[in-house]
Protein backbone atom coordinates (compact mmCIF):
# COMPACT_ATOMS: atom_id res chain seq x y z
CA UNK A 1 0.00 0.00 0.00
CA UNK A 2 2.80 2.39 0.89
CA UNK A 3 4.49 1.64 -2.46
CA UNK A 4 1.52 3.04 -4.37
CA UNK A 5 1.58 6.20 -2.21
CA UNK A 6 5.28 6.71 -2.92
CA UNK A 7 4.74 6.05 -6.64
CA UNK A 8 2.00 8.67 -6.68
CA UNK A 9 4.25 11.13 -4.87
CA UNK A 10 7.04 10.54 -7.44
CA UNK A 11 4.51 11.22 -10.19
CA UNK A 12 3.43 14.47 -8.54
CA UNK A 13 6.97 15.63 -7.92
CA UNK A 14 8.31 14.84 -11.41
CA UNK A 15 5.28 16.12 -13.27
CA UNK A 16 5.59 19.33 -11.28
CA UNK A 17 9.20 19.55 -12.44
CA UNK A 18 8.07 18.98 -16.01
CA UNK A 19 5.54 21.77 -15.63
CA UNK A 20 8.36 24.04 -14.44
CA UNK A 21 10.28 23.32 -17.64
CA UNK A 22 7.20 23.97 -19.80
CA UNK A 23 6.50 27.18 -17.92
CA UNK A 24 10.09 28.34 -18.51
CA UNK A 25 9.80 27.55 -22.19
CA UNK A 26 6.58 29.52 -22.59
CA UNK A 27 7.96 32.43 -20.54
CA UNK A 28 10.90 32.67 -22.97
CA UNK A 29 8.88 32.43 -26.14
CA UNK A 30 10.16 35.90 -27.21
CA UNK A 31 13.67 35.62 -25.77
CA UNK A 32 16.30 36.10 -28.49
CA UNK A 33 18.39 32.97 -29.04
CA UNK A 34 16.54 30.98 -26.38
CA UNK A 35 16.67 27.19 -26.68
CA UNK A 36 13.70 25.30 -25.28
CA UNK A 37 14.15 22.66 -22.58
CA UNK A 38 12.83 19.12 -22.46
CA UNK A 39 12.42 16.93 -19.36
CA UNK A 40 12.81 13.17 -19.83
CA UNK A 41 11.19 10.57 -17.52
CA UNK A 42 12.14 7.00 -16.77
CA UNK A 43 10.77 4.38 -14.40
CA UNK A 44 12.34 4.03 -10.97
CA UNK A 45 13.74 0.78 -9.55
CA UNK A 46 11.47 -2.25 -9.42
CA UNK A 47 11.12 -4.46 -6.35
CA UNK A 48 11.32 -8.17 -7.05
CA UNK A 49 8.87 -10.20 -4.99
CA UNK A 50 9.19 -13.49 -6.73
CA UNK A 51 12.01 -15.24 -8.57
CA UNK A 52 11.81 -17.45 -11.59
CA UNK A 53 10.72 -21.01 -10.73
CA UNK A 54 9.67 -24.17 -12.50
CA UNK A 55 6.04 -23.07 -12.31
CA UNK A 56 6.55 -19.36 -12.77
CA UNK A 57 8.60 -18.47 -15.85
CA UNK A 58 8.76 -14.69 -15.37
CA UNK A 59 9.98 -12.88 -12.25
CA UNK A 60 7.45 -10.96 -10.23
CA UNK A 61 8.42 -7.25 -9.87
CA UNK A 62 6.61 -4.16 -8.70
CA UNK A 63 7.72 -0.71 -9.90
CA UNK A 64 8.54 1.98 -7.36
CA UNK A 65 7.32 4.98 -9.34
CA UNK A 66 9.08 7.22 -11.87
CA UNK A 67 11.97 9.67 -11.92
CA UNK A 68 13.50 12.47 -14.04
CA UNK A 69 16.49 11.23 -15.96
CA UNK A 70 17.49 14.47 -17.73
CA UNK A 71 16.54 18.04 -18.52
CA UNK A 72 18.10 18.95 -21.84
CA UNK A 73 18.11 21.94 -24.15
CA UNK A 74 16.98 21.50 -27.74
CA UNK A 75 19.39 23.34 -30.05
CA UNK A 76 17.36 23.16 -33.24
CA UNK A 77 17.42 26.32 -35.38
CA UNK A 78 15.13 29.14 -34.34
CA UNK A 79 13.40 31.30 -36.92
CA UNK A 80 15.23 34.41 -38.14
CA UNK A 81 13.84 37.91 -37.89
CA UNK A 82 15.20 40.86 -39.84
CA UNK A 83 15.91 43.95 -37.76
CA UNK A 84 17.99 46.09 -40.11
CA UNK A 85 20.53 46.75 -37.34
CA UNK A 86 24.05 46.05 -38.62
CA UNK A 87 25.32 44.52 -35.38
CA UNK A 88 22.32 42.25 -34.85
CA UNK A 89 23.78 38.89 -35.84
CA UNK A 90 22.19 35.47 -36.29
CA UNK A 91 23.87 32.13 -36.90
CA UNK A 92 22.40 30.10 -39.71
CA UNK A 93 23.36 26.55 -38.81
CA UNK A 94 25.36 25.20 -35.87
CA UNK A 95 27.74 27.05 -33.62
CA UNK A 96 27.90 29.77 -31.01
CA UNK A 97 29.30 33.26 -30.72
CA UNK A 98 32.24 33.44 -28.33
CA UNK A 99 32.23 36.14 -25.63
CA UNK A 100 34.98 37.25 -23.27
CA UNK A 101 33.78 36.89 -19.67
CA UNK A 102 37.06 37.78 -18.01
CA UNK A 103 38.64 34.58 -16.72
CA UNK A 104 36.77 32.42 -19.20
CA UNK A 105 35.04 32.49 -22.55
CA UNK A 106 31.33 31.80 -22.77
CA UNK A 107 29.01 30.93 -25.64
CA UNK A 108 25.74 32.38 -26.87
CA UNK A 109 23.29 32.24 -29.75
CA UNK A 110 21.79 35.62 -28.82
CA UNK A 111 23.38 38.04 -31.29
CA UNK A 112 22.16 41.40 -29.98
CA UNK A 113 25.49 43.20 -30.14
CA UNK A 114 26.60 46.82 -30.41
CA UNK A 115 29.80 48.88 -30.44
CA UNK A 116 30.50 50.51 -27.08
CA UNK A 117 32.33 53.81 -26.54
CA UNK A 118 35.69 52.05 -26.85
CA UNK A 119 34.74 50.53 -30.21
CA UNK A 120 34.34 47.03 -28.78
CA UNK A 121 31.61 44.80 -30.17
CA UNK A 122 29.76 43.70 -27.02
CA UNK A 123 26.47 42.19 -25.87
CA UNK A 124 24.12 43.95 -23.48
CA UNK A 125 26.03 42.56 -20.52
CA UNK A 126 29.21 44.22 -21.78
CA UNK A 127 30.90 40.95 -22.78
CA UNK A 128 33.13 41.45 -25.84
CA UNK A 129 32.61 39.37 -28.96
CA UNK A 130 35.70 37.35 -29.85
CA UNK A 131 37.38 37.06 -33.23
CA UNK A 132 40.49 38.08 -35.11
CA UNK A 133 41.69 41.54 -36.06
CA UNK A 134 42.88 41.83 -39.67
CA UNK A 135 45.82 43.90 -40.81
CA UNK A 136 45.96 46.46 -43.62
CA UNK A 137 46.81 43.91 -46.30
CA UNK A 138 43.71 41.87 -45.49
CA UNK A 139 45.74 39.04 -44.00
CA UNK A 140 44.90 37.77 -40.55
CA UNK A 141 47.48 37.27 -37.85
CA UNK A 142 46.21 33.73 -37.48
CA UNK A 143 42.87 32.03 -36.97
CA UNK A 144 43.84 29.87 -34.03
CA UNK A 145 42.25 29.85 -30.58
CA UNK A 146 45.33 31.48 -29.10
CA UNK A 147 44.92 34.51 -31.38
CA UNK A 148 41.34 35.29 -30.38
CA UNK A 149 40.87 38.83 -29.14
CA UNK A 150 38.13 41.34 -28.44
CA UNK A 151 36.78 42.72 -31.71
CA UNK A 152 37.49 46.44 -31.51
CA UNK A 153 36.89 48.91 -34.34
CA UNK A 154 38.33 52.42 -34.03
CA UNK A 155 35.57 54.60 -35.47
CA UNK A 156 38.10 57.40 -35.99
CA UNK A 157 40.43 55.28 -38.10
CA UNK A 158 41.54 56.58 -41.47
CA UNK A 159 42.60 54.96 -44.71
CA UNK A 160 46.07 56.27 -45.43
CA UNK A 161 46.83 58.17 -48.63
CA UNK A 162 48.48 56.20 -51.41
CA UNK A 163 50.29 57.71 -54.36
CA UNK A 164 49.25 56.67 -57.84
CA UNK A 165 51.66 54.17 -59.36
CA UNK A 166 49.55 52.67 -62.13
CA UNK A 167 46.96 53.92 -64.61
CA UNK A 168 44.95 51.45 -66.70
CA UNK A 169 43.62 52.78 -70.01
CA UNK A 170 40.77 51.21 -71.90
CA UNK A 171 38.46 51.96 -74.80
CA UNK A 172 38.42 52.62 -78.53
CA UNK A 173 40.22 55.18 -80.69
CA UNK A 174 38.08 55.95 -83.74
CA UNK A 175 39.88 54.65 -86.82
CA UNK A 176 37.71 56.92 -88.96
CA UNK A 177 39.25 60.08 -87.53
CA UNK A 178 41.63 61.90 -89.88
CA UNK A 179 44.24 64.55 -89.35
CA UNK A 180 44.28 66.85 -92.41
CA UNK A 181 46.11 69.97 -93.57
CA UNK A 182 44.12 73.12 -94.30
CA UNK A 183 43.96 73.96 -98.04
CA UNK A 184 42.77 77.21 -99.65
CA UNK A 185 42.36 77.20 -103.45
CA UNK A 186 41.80 80.11 -105.87
CA UNK A 187 38.16 80.03 -106.96
CA UNK A 188 38.97 79.81 -110.69
CA UNK A 189 42.04 78.87 -112.68
CA UNK A 190 44.47 81.39 -114.16
CA UNK A 191 44.64 80.81 -117.90
CA UNK A 192 46.59 81.84 -120.94
CA UNK A 193 44.84 81.48 -124.26
CA UNK A 194 42.17 79.43 -122.43
CA UNK A 195 44.71 76.90 -121.13
CA UNK A 196 45.79 76.57 -117.52
CA UNK A 197 48.73 78.77 -116.68
CA UNK A 198 51.72 77.57 -114.69
CA UNK A 199 54.19 79.23 -112.33
CA UNK A 200 56.38 80.42 -115.23
CA UNK A 201 53.55 82.27 -116.98
CA UNK A 202 54.03 86.03 -117.14
CA UNK A 203 51.39 87.86 -115.18
CA UNK A 204 50.55 90.25 -118.01
CA UNK A 205 50.05 87.26 -120.33
CA UNK A 206 47.14 85.93 -118.30
CA UNK A 207 43.63 86.01 -119.68
CA UNK A 208 42.61 87.56 -116.34
CA UNK A 209 44.55 90.79 -117.04
CA UNK A 210 41.95 93.54 -117.43
CA UNK A 211 44.55 96.29 -117.86
CA UNK A 212 48.24 95.38 -118.11
CA UNK A 213 50.18 95.84 -114.94
CA UNK A 214 52.98 98.40 -114.89
CA UNK A 215 56.05 98.56 -112.68
CA UNK A 216 55.03 99.69 -109.21
CA UNK A 217 51.52 98.24 -109.32
CA UNK A 218 50.75 96.13 -106.24
CA UNK A 219 48.71 93.14 -105.11
CA UNK A 220 47.69 93.20 -101.42
CA UNK A 221 48.10 89.87 -99.61
CA UNK A 222 45.92 89.56 -96.47
CA UNK A 223 44.64 86.74 -94.27
CA UNK A 224 45.69 84.73 -91.22
CA UNK A 225 48.38 82.21 -90.45
CA UNK A 226 47.46 78.69 -89.20
CA UNK A 227 47.98 79.88 -85.62
CA UNK A 228 45.52 82.72 -86.11
CA UNK A 229 48.03 85.59 -86.38
CA UNK A 230 47.22 88.24 -89.00
CA UNK A 231 48.91 88.36 -92.41
CA UNK A 232 49.36 91.66 -94.25
CA UNK A 233 51.90 92.00 -97.05
CA UNK A 234 52.29 93.68 -100.45
CA UNK A 235 53.55 92.26 -103.71
CA UNK A 236 55.02 94.95 -106.04
CA UNK A 237 55.02 94.22 -109.75
CA UNK A 238 58.15 94.53 -111.85
CA UNK A 239 58.20 94.29 -115.64
CA UNK A 240 58.33 90.69 -116.79
CA UNK A 241 57.25 89.18 -113.44
CA UNK A 242 55.69 85.72 -113.55
CA UNK A 243 53.18 83.93 -111.36
CA UNK A 244 56.15 82.47 -109.47
CA UNK A 245 57.09 85.96 -108.27
CA UNK A 246 53.60 86.34 -106.82
CA UNK A 247 53.90 82.89 -105.20
CA UNK A 248 57.23 83.91 -103.65
CA UNK A 249 55.59 86.96 -102.12
CA UNK A 250 52.75 84.86 -100.72
CA UNK A 251 55.20 82.35 -99.22
CA UNK A 252 57.16 85.17 -97.63
CA UNK A 253 53.99 86.58 -96.12
CA UNK A 254 52.74 83.35 -94.49
CA UNK A 255 54.23 81.33 -91.64
CA UNK A 256 53.21 77.68 -91.62
CA UNK A 257 51.60 77.61 -95.08
CA UNK A 258 53.00 77.30 -98.61
CA UNK A 259 51.57 78.47 -101.93
CA UNK A 260 51.95 76.60 -105.21
CA UNK A 261 50.33 76.33 -108.66
CA UNK A 262 48.07 73.30 -109.15
CA UNK A 263 46.03 72.93 -112.33
CA UNK A 264 46.20 76.66 -113.00
CA UNK A 265 45.08 77.62 -109.49
CA UNK A 266 47.05 79.12 -106.65
CA UNK A 267 46.79 76.63 -103.75
CA UNK A 268 47.82 77.58 -100.19
CA UNK A 269 48.46 74.50 -98.00
CA UNK A 270 49.39 74.33 -94.30
CA UNK A 271 52.77 72.78 -93.76
CA UNK A 272 51.49 70.91 -90.66
CA UNK A 273 48.27 68.96 -90.42
CA UNK A 274 45.73 69.77 -87.81
CA UNK A 275 43.27 72.41 -86.67
CA UNK A 276 43.98 75.67 -88.50
CA UNK A 277 42.95 79.31 -88.72
CA UNK A 278 44.48 79.89 -92.17
CA UNK A 279 42.81 82.28 -94.61
CA UNK A 280 43.99 84.28 -97.70
CA UNK A 281 42.81 87.08 -99.97
CA UNK A 282 44.52 88.81 -102.95
CA UNK A 283 43.36 92.28 -104.03
CA UNK A 284 44.63 94.89 -106.49
CA UNK A 285 46.33 97.91 -104.99
CA UNK A 286 44.14 101.00 -104.87
CA UNK A 287 46.65 103.16 -106.83
CA UNK A 288 47.31 100.60 -109.53
CA UNK A 289 47.42 101.54 -113.24
CA UNK A 290 46.82 97.95 -114.32
CA UNK A 291 44.32 95.43 -113.01
CA UNK A 292 44.14 91.63 -112.72
CA UNK A 293 40.82 89.94 -112.11
CA UNK A 294 41.38 87.42 -109.27
CA UNK A 295 38.66 85.14 -107.86
CA UNK A 296 38.25 84.66 -104.11
CA UNK A 297 39.97 81.75 -102.41
CA UNK A 298 37.85 78.78 -101.33
CA UNK A 299 38.60 76.52 -98.32
CA UNK A 300 38.75 73.21 -100.19
CA UNK A 301 40.13 71.10 -97.30
CA UNK A 302 39.49 71.97 -93.68
CA UNK A 303 42.40 71.49 -91.37
CA UNK A 304 41.31 69.04 -88.67
CA UNK A 305 42.93 66.97 -85.99
CA UNK A 306 41.74 63.41 -85.33
CA UNK A 307 41.80 63.66 -81.58
CA UNK A 308 40.47 61.79 -78.55
CA UNK A 309 41.20 62.54 -74.94
CA UNK A 310 40.39 61.53 -71.41
CA UNK A 311 41.31 62.72 -67.95
CA UNK A 312 42.13 61.08 -64.66
CA UNK A 313 42.51 62.24 -61.08
CA UNK A 314 45.73 60.94 -59.54
CA UNK A 315 47.08 61.26 -55.99
CA UNK A 316 50.50 62.07 -54.61
CA UNK A 317 52.11 60.72 -51.44
CA UNK A 318 50.34 63.39 -49.35
CA UNK A 319 46.95 62.36 -50.69
CA UNK A 320 46.57 65.55 -52.77
CA UNK A 321 44.68 65.08 -56.02
CA UNK A 322 45.97 66.21 -59.42
CA UNK A 323 44.21 66.20 -62.77
CA UNK A 324 46.04 64.69 -65.76
CA UNK A 325 44.72 64.90 -69.34
CA UNK A 326 45.79 62.25 -71.83
CA UNK A 327 45.28 63.36 -75.44
CA UNK A 328 45.59 61.03 -78.45
CA UNK A 329 46.11 62.47 -81.94
CA UNK A 330 45.80 60.56 -85.22
CA UNK A 331 48.88 60.92 -87.41
CA UNK A 332 49.07 60.79 -91.19
CA UNK A 333 50.54 57.30 -90.86
CA UNK A 334 48.15 54.39 -91.08
CA UNK A 335 47.05 52.97 -87.70
CA UNK A 336 49.30 55.35 -85.73
CA UNK A 337 48.51 57.85 -83.03
CA UNK A 338 50.60 60.13 -80.86
CA UNK A 339 49.74 60.78 -77.25
CA UNK A 340 50.64 63.51 -74.80
CA UNK A 341 50.01 63.99 -71.08
CA UNK A 342 49.12 67.41 -69.71
CA UNK A 343 48.39 68.75 -66.24
CA UNK A 344 45.92 71.45 -65.34
CA UNK A 345 47.71 72.94 -62.32
CA UNK A 346 51.20 73.85 -61.19
CA UNK A 347 52.47 70.30 -61.61
CA UNK A 348 55.46 69.69 -63.87
CA UNK A 349 55.82 66.72 -66.16
CA UNK A 350 59.45 65.73 -65.82
CA UNK A 351 59.57 62.90 -68.37
CA UNK A 352 57.44 60.35 -70.16
CA UNK A 353 54.81 62.89 -71.14
CA UNK A 354 54.41 61.82 -74.77
CA UNK A 355 54.68 58.85 -77.08
CA UNK A 356 53.09 56.80 -79.84
CA UNK A 357 50.45 54.09 -80.16
CA UNK A 358 50.16 51.70 -83.09
CA UNK A 359 47.56 49.14 -84.10
CA UNK A 360 47.42 46.34 -86.65
CA UNK A 361 44.97 45.98 -89.54
CA UNK A 362 42.49 44.25 -87.20
CA UNK A 363 42.42 47.20 -84.79
CA UNK A 364 44.43 45.38 -82.13
CA UNK A 365 47.07 47.21 -80.11
CA UNK A 366 50.61 46.43 -81.26
CA UNK A 367 52.67 48.97 -79.30
CA UNK A 368 52.43 51.75 -76.75
CA UNK A 369 55.71 53.62 -76.43
CA UNK A 370 57.16 56.69 -74.78
CA UNK A 371 59.25 59.29 -76.57
CA UNK A 372 62.95 59.70 -75.74
CA UNK A 373 63.23 56.12 -74.51
CA UNK A 374 61.22 56.86 -71.34
CA UNK A 375 59.32 54.06 -69.65
CA UNK A 376 57.20 55.93 -67.06
CA UNK A 377 55.27 59.14 -66.70
CA UNK A 378 57.07 61.19 -64.04
CA UNK A 379 55.35 64.21 -62.49
CA UNK A 380 56.56 66.66 -59.88
CA UNK A 381 53.44 67.71 -57.89
CA UNK A 382 55.26 70.90 -56.76
CA UNK A 383 53.79 70.68 -53.25
CA UNK A 384 56.55 68.97 -51.29
CA UNK A 385 55.37 65.43 -51.96
CA UNK A 386 57.38 62.72 -53.66
CA UNK A 387 57.90 62.62 -57.41
CA UNK A 388 55.17 60.51 -59.02
CA UNK A 389 56.39 57.63 -61.20
CA UNK A 390 53.39 56.16 -63.02
CA UNK A 391 53.15 53.12 -65.27
CA UNK A 392 50.59 53.42 -68.08
CA UNK A 393 48.85 50.13 -68.91
CA UNK A 394 47.06 49.81 -72.25
CA UNK A 395 46.87 46.05 -72.66
CA UNK A 396 43.70 44.06 -72.11
CA UNK A 397 43.25 42.39 -68.76
CA UNK A 398 40.71 41.28 -66.22
CA UNK A 399 37.69 43.55 -66.61
CA UNK A 400 39.53 45.74 -69.16
CA UNK A 401 39.51 45.65 -72.96
CA UNK A 402 42.67 47.72 -73.26
CA UNK A 403 43.09 50.04 -76.26
CA UNK A 404 41.54 49.22 -79.64
CA UNK A 405 41.17 51.04 -82.96
CA UNK A 406 37.93 50.43 -84.81
CA UNK A 407 35.86 52.79 -86.93
CA UNK A 408 33.49 53.60 -84.13
CA UNK A 409 33.00 56.32 -81.59
CA UNK A 410 36.09 57.05 -79.51
CA UNK A 411 35.51 55.76 -75.97
CA UNK A 412 38.98 56.14 -74.49
CA UNK A 413 38.87 56.28 -70.69
CA UNK A 414 40.89 55.54 -67.59
CA UNK A 415 39.48 52.30 -66.25
CA UNK A 416 41.33 52.46 -62.96
CA UNK A 417 44.15 54.10 -61.05
CA UNK A 418 45.58 52.79 -57.80
CA UNK A 419 46.07 55.98 -55.81
CA UNK A 420 43.79 57.41 -53.16
CA UNK A 421 43.37 60.35 -50.82
CA UNK A 422 43.16 60.07 -47.06
CA UNK A 423 39.76 58.64 -46.12
CA UNK A 424 37.74 58.48 -42.93
CA UNK A 425 35.62 55.51 -41.93
CA UNK A 426 32.06 56.15 -43.06
CA UNK A 427 30.32 52.77 -42.78
CA UNK A 428 30.68 49.12 -41.80
CA UNK A 429 29.30 45.91 -43.23
CA UNK A 430 29.42 42.33 -41.95
CA UNK A 431 29.38 39.54 -44.52
CA UNK A 432 28.12 35.98 -44.11
CA UNK A 433 31.58 34.74 -43.14
CA UNK A 434 31.72 37.15 -40.22
CA UNK A 435 34.18 39.57 -41.83
CA UNK A 436 33.68 43.18 -40.73
CA UNK A 437 34.47 45.46 -43.68
CA UNK A 438 35.00 49.20 -43.47
CA UNK A 439 34.15 51.66 -46.25
CA UNK A 440 36.12 54.89 -46.26
CA UNK A 441 35.37 58.30 -47.75
CA UNK A 442 38.14 57.81 -50.33
CA UNK A 443 36.34 54.79 -51.76
CA UNK A 444 38.66 52.28 -50.11
CA UNK A 445 37.16 49.08 -48.70
CA UNK A 446 39.12 47.31 -46.01
CA UNK A 447 38.56 44.10 -44.03
CA UNK A 448 39.01 45.04 -40.37
CA UNK A 449 38.07 41.99 -38.29
CA UNK A 450 36.52 38.54 -38.44
CA UNK A 451 34.03 37.10 -35.97
CA UNK A 452 34.77 33.62 -34.60
CA UNK A 453 32.27 30.84 -34.00
CA UNK A 454 32.68 27.90 -31.65
CA UNK A 455 31.48 24.30 -31.71
CA UNK A 456 31.22 21.72 -28.93
CA UNK A 457 30.93 17.94 -29.39
CA UNK A 458 27.82 17.70 -27.21
CA UNK A 459 25.64 20.81 -27.13
CA UNK A 460 23.29 19.18 -24.64
CA UNK A 461 26.14 19.06 -22.12
CA UNK A 462 26.57 22.86 -21.99
CA UNK A 463 26.03 24.55 -18.64
CA UNK A 464 23.44 27.34 -18.71
CA UNK A 465 24.57 30.58 -17.07
CA UNK A 466 21.46 32.67 -17.73
CA UNK A 467 21.08 35.65 -20.08
CA UNK A 468 21.44 33.32 -23.03
CA UNK A 469 24.98 32.29 -22.05
CA UNK A 470 26.49 28.83 -21.91
CA UNK A 471 29.70 27.43 -20.50
CA UNK A 472 31.50 24.37 -21.77
CA UNK A 473 31.64 21.55 -19.22
CA UNK A 474 32.84 17.99 -18.92
CA UNK A 475 29.72 16.63 -20.59
CA UNK A 476 29.83 19.08 -23.52
CA UNK A 477 33.47 18.56 -24.40
CA UNK A 478 36.03 21.27 -25.11
CA UNK A 479 35.20 24.37 -27.13
CA UNK A 480 36.46 24.20 -30.74
CA UNK A 481 36.97 27.52 -32.52
CA UNK A 482 35.67 27.72 -36.10
CA UNK A 483 36.70 30.21 -38.78
CA UNK A 484 34.05 30.51 -41.47
CA UNK A 485 35.28 30.25 -45.06
CA UNK A 486 33.92 29.42 -48.48
CA UNK A 487 33.58 25.74 -47.56
CA UNK A 488 31.63 26.38 -44.35
CA UNK A 489 28.00 25.32 -44.25
CA UNK A 490 27.32 27.69 -41.36
CA UNK A 491 26.99 31.43 -41.86
CA UNK A 492 26.48 34.69 -39.99
CA UNK A 493 23.64 36.92 -41.11
CA UNK A 494 23.89 40.62 -40.31
CA UNK A 495 20.79 42.67 -39.53
CA UNK A 496 18.99 39.57 -38.27
CA UNK A 497 18.30 37.89 -34.92
CA UNK A 498 17.54 34.28 -34.13
CA UNK A 499 14.24 34.01 -32.29
CA UNK A 500 13.33 31.51 -29.57
CA UNK A 501 12.82 27.98 -30.88
CA UNK A 502 9.90 27.34 -28.50
CA UNK A 503 6.97 25.66 -30.29
CA UNK A 504 3.87 27.01 -28.53
CA UNK A 505 1.49 24.37 -29.87
CA UNK A 506 3.82 21.63 -28.67
CA UNK A 507 4.22 23.25 -25.26
CA UNK A 508 0.46 23.59 -24.81
CA UNK A 509 0.00 19.93 -25.76
CA UNK A 510 2.66 18.87 -23.29
CA UNK A 511 1.06 21.10 -20.67
CA UNK A 512 -2.17 19.12 -21.08
CA UNK A 513 -0.44 15.74 -20.83
CA UNK A 514 1.56 16.96 -17.83
CA UNK A 515 -1.60 18.12 -16.11
CA UNK A 516 -3.25 14.74 -16.77
CA UNK A 517 -0.22 12.93 -15.44
CA UNK A 518 -0.24 15.09 -12.30
CA UNK A 519 -3.98 14.51 -11.78
CA UNK A 520 -3.60 10.76 -12.26
CA UNK A 521 -0.74 10.62 -9.75
CA UNK A 522 -2.85 12.58 -7.28
CA UNK A 523 -5.69 10.14 -7.87
CA UNK A 524 -3.36 7.23 -7.02
CA UNK A 525 -2.56 8.90 -3.70
CA UNK A 526 -6.21 9.58 -2.79
CA UNK A 527 -7.24 6.04 -3.75
CA UNK A 528 -4.40 4.51 -1.71
CA UNK A 529 -5.41 6.74 1.20
CA UNK A 530 -8.99 5.50 1.02
CA UNK A 531 -7.76 1.91 1.00
CA UNK A 532 -5.61 2.57 4.09
CA UNK A 533 -8.55 4.20 5.82
CA UNK A 534 -10.69 1.17 5.09
CA UNK A 535 -7.98 -1.09 6.48
CA UNK A 536 -7.80 0.92 9.71
CA UNK A 537 -11.58 0.66 10.15
CA UNK A 538 -11.38 -3.16 10.09
CA UNK A 539 -10.14 -3.06 13.71
CA UNK A 540 -13.24 -1.24 14.78
TrEMBL record:
Gene Ontology CC annotation, any one: bacterial-type flagellum hook
Domain Flagellar basal body rod protein N-terminal: 5-35
Keyword Transmembrane: no
Domain Flagellar hook protein FlgE D2: 304-419
Pfam families per the UniProt record, alphabetical: Flg_bb_rod, Flg_bbr_C, FlgE_D2, LlgE_F_G_D1
Chief location: other
Domain Flagellar basal-body/hook protein C-terminal span(s) in chain numbering: 494-538
Subcellular location: Bacterial flagellum basal body
InterPro entries in alphabetical order: Falgellar_hook_FlgE_sf, Flag_bb_rod_N, Flagellar_FlgE/F/G, Flg_bb/hook_C_dom, FlgE/F/G-like, FlgE_D2, LlgE_F_G-like_D1
Flagellar hook protein FlgE/F/G-like D1 domain mapped to chain residues: 90-158
Biological processes annotated in GO: bacterial-type flagellum-dependent swarming motility
Keyword Cell membrane appears in the UniProt entry: no
Keywords for this protein: Bacterial flagellum, Cell projection, Cilium, Flagellum
PANTHER family: FLAGELLAR HOOK PROTEIN FLGE, FLAGELLAR PROTEIN
Purpose: A flexible structure which links the flagellar filament to the drive apparatus in the basal body.
Family membership noted in the UniProt record: Belongs to the flagella basal body rod proteins family.
Protein's UniProt name: Flagellar hook protein FlgE
Gene for this chain: flgE
Amino acid sequence: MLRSLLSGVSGLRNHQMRMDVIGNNIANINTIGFKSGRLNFSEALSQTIGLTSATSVNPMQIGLGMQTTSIENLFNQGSLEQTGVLTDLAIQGDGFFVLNAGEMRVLTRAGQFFFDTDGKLVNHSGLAVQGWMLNQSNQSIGFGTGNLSDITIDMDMVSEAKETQNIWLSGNLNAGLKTTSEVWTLGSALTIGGANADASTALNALDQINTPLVAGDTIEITGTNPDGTAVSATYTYSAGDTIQDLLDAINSAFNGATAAMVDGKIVLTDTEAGDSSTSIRLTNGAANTGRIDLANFVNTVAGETGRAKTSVVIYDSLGVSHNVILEFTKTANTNEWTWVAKTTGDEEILSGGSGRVTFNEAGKLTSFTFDNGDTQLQIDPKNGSEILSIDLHTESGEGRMGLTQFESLSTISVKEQDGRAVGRLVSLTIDNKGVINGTFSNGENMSLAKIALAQVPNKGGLIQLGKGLYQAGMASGSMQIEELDEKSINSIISGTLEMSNVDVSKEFTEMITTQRGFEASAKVITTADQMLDELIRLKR
